[in-house]
Amino acid sequence: MTYRIACAGLHMECATFLPHVTGRDVFEAGTVRGAQVIAAFENSNTVMGGFLKTLDAAGATAVPILHADGGAAGLADQAAVAGYRQEIVEGLTALDGSVDGLLLHLHGAMVTQDELDPDAITLDAIRKAVGPDLPIMVALDYHANLDAASIAGATAVFGYRYSPHVDMGATGERAAQCLLKTLAGDIRPAMALARPGLILPSIFSATDLEPLGSLVEKARRMSVESATYADVSLFAGFAYADVPNCGASVVAVVDGPTREALRLAEGMSQDIARNRDALSSAAPVHSLGEGLERALRIARDAERPVVILEHADRANDSTHGLAALLGFADRARIAVPFLWDPAAAAKAVAAGEGAEVPLMLGGHSAPLAGDPVPVTARVEAVRRDFTYRGTGAMRAGSTVRLGDTALLDVRGMKISVTSLSQSAIDFDPFLEFGLDPADFDIVLLRSKTHFRAAWEGFAAEIVIVDTPDYGPADVSKLPYRHATP
Ligand SMILES: [Zn+2]
Question: Is 317 helix (H, G, I), strand (E, B) or coil?
Answer without folding.
Answer: coil
